[in-house]
Design a protein that fits this description.
With 718 residues, the protein is α/β, with parallel strands linked by helices. Helix content is 31%, strand content 18%. The protein contains 27 helices and 29 strands. The protein starts with a strand and ends with a helix. The C terminus is likely disordered.
């Protein structure tokens, strides 16, 4: 006889409700949607297909210790036990800390760890106990510009707003493809884009801005304005310039709630629709039309996401997006953008900047740090120079997800200690000294902590572990806590030595809302909905500068060189050869970073690997045909790929999906058999290649050279 258990997906931000069917042996036999759940939303094929990950025979099941040198291309690992592994790791970390200082110990946490609430609760206290400021991770590859920008615009890294899609009359969606990637920095029910379709149904309007016609752009939603990659800052500045000319600024609101408006207008004055149209590829007439549409709409939203974040000027794009929403009166109103309530309903004020002295110069992080991290593109430099001697990966795979794979490989060989906490022995894990097997989201209790304060339907949901972990897998919070104990520093286990799971951690967080794990278990679907607050309340909660005003032109942007850099980049773009190709990142429904690379059902047919997408016009001009082998190169690296003709791309743009290039993942058999290509080999890395202030990697809009394989052979002969 089977039983059903209520849980939720932890692959991406919607945290969709899922019902698990479990047999008498404690085995999950099916995952299915949960109709009628109070949060709404329906889990997609990735969440419902997660049993392929859960049951993957290639998962890490026991601690593994490397016995050969990290310079060897394939690791020789032996099975180890937890006590001896943690004792050795703790002892070595303690010695490194005592001999070289706490900052020589670094941690890199990847995207999956964001959805492990118990681990998140323990993560910052662990780093604080170690005393290290060397914090790296996925945020500098996808969203650090937003939290950094929020710190300077609003005064808190937590003051980021979400769009009120359910009530708006106008949506300008830039660099996002929510049908495939969902909404970023927003936990909204997965509804097959029905919320966007309803904007049009009620007489509103939707436009997408992207270098390719995204899957989200349909006759039911709205058209795509095909922008040139990496030029969004100039399009946004021109929009704001035109909104000002059309009288679309709410002067009373801005003078009451904002400051430095004149400086903002001085900045955008340099970027009129006419002056930027050749650079952006969007005509001045169209830019003026979009500005008029925003001004005329009863409510409007400008929303930007990862495609813009990664394109070299993410902070300025975030700033200009927020400014359009603010000055038009659409911040803190129905149908505009707002700050939802959450389980943790706080926006800690920015108190200053933490300075981390390194061999490549001082690096600054906001204080409190919040979601901020140091630039992943500097990892190789800091290891090579001796700043970092030990690295702990928590569900991270930087050889694949960050730029500069070969430099990172050479640097990782020099580490005194390299530890991976993960469900797999990944490409990066293959270089580690230890693999510590962690539970997946069916094997641990959890709450939806990552989405708090970002939910269109504010709530907290709890789940017990659906099934007990098999083999010798352990929760990430416990692993971090035990490492801390072995280092002789404070640990959550000190006061809770007999804790069987993380529920004591959740009780501490839930108590802020007068809740507990037991109370959550008694709630329908283990879920408690929070009452929505007035959207204008953000002006009280989120404005954390001492004067409680929105900074329309933060001085830090000028001090960090972002304003001058913007002008320099514009000059460079204005003088680019007309046949320049730019690479963008392309998301598909069958990959989530590198999480699903070993799942056979997602690696079939055209999804076997990640071809170079290229439009017919660009291919024909280079003598390239569909399926041809090509070499793609930049000054940072080169890859060989095959071409897929894709006329959804505007001319001058090529696209590849990242998360591939797994030929050296020796224990992930599907990934090794169908490795694809690591396109991040082409991406800039090292000193000076990241965005100042936010430390964001440049991963989209990068100039590339594409040559047919036949041309390469001919060149070799001559």
């Amino acid at each position: 006889m089977t039983q059903t258990k209520s849980t939720f997906c932890r692959i991406c931000e919607p945290n969709c409700p899922v019902t698990a069917e479990v047999d008498d042996h404690g085995t999950v036999i099916e995952l299915r949607p949960t109709p009628g759940h109070p949060t709404g939303g329906t889990a997609c094929h990735k969440g419902l297909g997660y049993l392929d990950v859960h049951n993957d025979p290639d998962r890490a099941n026991w601690p593994q210790r490397r016995t050969n040198d990290k310079s060897q291309p394939e690791g020789n690992f032996v099975r180890a036990d937890w006590d001896s592994s943690l004792q050795d790791i703790g002892s070595r970390l303690r010695d490194i800390r005592e001999q070289h200082g706490p900052n020589t110990i670094a941690v890199f946490h990847g995207n999956p760890s964001t959805f492990d609430s118990a681990g998140l609760i323990c993560y910052d206290p662990f780093l604080d106990a170690v005393g290290t400021k060397m914090r790296f991770g996925g945020s500098t590859q996808d969203m650090a510009n937003k939290t950094t920008g929020a710190a300077h615009v609003y005064g808190s890294t937590s003051s980021f707003m979400i769009p009120d899609l359910a009530n708006t009359h106008y949506l300008l969606c830039i660099g996002a493809n929510p049908r495939v990637s969902r909404w970023s920095m927003m936990s909204a029910p997965q509804d097959n884009l029905d919320v966007v379709k309803r904007i049009v149904e009620r007489g509103g309007q939707v436009r997408f801005v992207n270098p390719r016609r995204v899957e989200s752009s349909t006759t039911e939603t709205g058209p795509t304005l095909l922008i040139k990659p990496g030029t969004d800052a100039y399009f946004l500045a021109a929009l704001l310039h035109e909104i000002h000319l059309q009288g679309g600024i709410d002067e009373n609101l801005v003078r009451t709630k904002g400051k430095h408006l004149d400086e903002l207008m001085t900045f955008v004055k340099a970027y009129s629709p006419e002056s930027v149209e050749d650079v952006t590829g969007i005509s001045a007439a169209m830019t003026k039309q979009v500005a008029a549409e925003i001004c005329a709409a009863p409510s409007a939203i400008v929303y930007m996401s990862t495609g813009v974040n990664q394109s070299r000027q993410g902070v300025l794009c975030y700033w200009l997006t927020e400014m359009i929403n603010f000055v038009t009166g659409n911040l803190g109103r129905e149908g505009g953008t707002f700050k939802p309530t959450g389980l943790i309903d706080a926006c800690p004020p920015l108190t200053g900047m933490q300075v981390i002295e390194t061999s490549v110069g001082p690096l600054e992080l906001p204080d409190p740090v919040g979601y901020s991290q140091l630039p992943a593109t500097l990892l190789a430099d800091l290891i090579e120079n001796g700043d970092i001697r030990a690295l702990i990966l928590w569900s991270g795979n930087p050889l694949i997800t960050a730029g500069g794979e070969e430099r990172l490989r050479a640097a990782f060989e020099k580490l005194d200690l390299f530890v991976s906490i993960d469900i797999y022995r990944s490409v990066t894990g293959e270089m580690c000294d230890y693999i510590l097997p962690v539970t997946d989201w069916l094997e641990r209790p959890d709450i939806n902590l990552a989405g708090t304060g970002m939910q269109s339907k504010p709530h907290v949901v709890y789940t017990d572990a659906v099934v007990a972990p098999t083999h010798d897998r352990r929760d990430a919070w416990w692993i971090l806590a035990r490492i801390a104990q072995e280092m002789g520093i404070s640990s959550p286990l000190d006061a809770n030595p007999d804790a069987a799971d993380a529920t004591f951690l959740f009780d501490a967080v839930l108590s802020m809302r007068g809740l507990s794990v037991d109370a959550m278990r008694q709630s329908p679907s283990n879920t408690v909905m929070f009452p929505e607050k007035d959207k204008a309340s953000l002006f009280e909660q989120c404005l954390q500068h001492p004067d409680h005003l929105i900074d329309c032109c933060p001085p830090a942007f000028t001090e960090a060189g972002l304003i001058a850099r913007c002008a320099d980049i514009f000059e460079t773009l204005s003088n680019e050869p007309p046949d320049t190709l730019k690479m963008i990142s392309l998301r598909t429904p069958y990959m989530n970073n590198s999480w699903l690379v070993n799942i056979p059902r997602y690696r079939r047919g055209r999804n076997r690997d990640n071809p170079l997408h290229m439009c017919e016009q660009d291919a024909a001009s280079r003598g390239i045909f569909d399926g041809d082998a090509v070499r793609v190169s930049t000054q940072y690296g080169q890859i060989d790929a095959r071409v897929l003709i894709d006329d959804d791309l505007r001319p001058g743009v090529v696209a590849m999906s990242h998360g591939y290039g797994t030929a050296r993942a020796t224990t992930q058999r599907t990934a090794m058999k169908k490795p694809g290509v690591n396109c991040n080999v082409l991406m800039p890395s090292g000193v000076g290649t990241y965005e100042p202030l936010s430390f964001m990697s440049w991963l989209s809009g990068v100039p590339v050279d594409v040559q047919p394989a036949a041309a390469r052979a001919e060149n070799r002969l001559t």
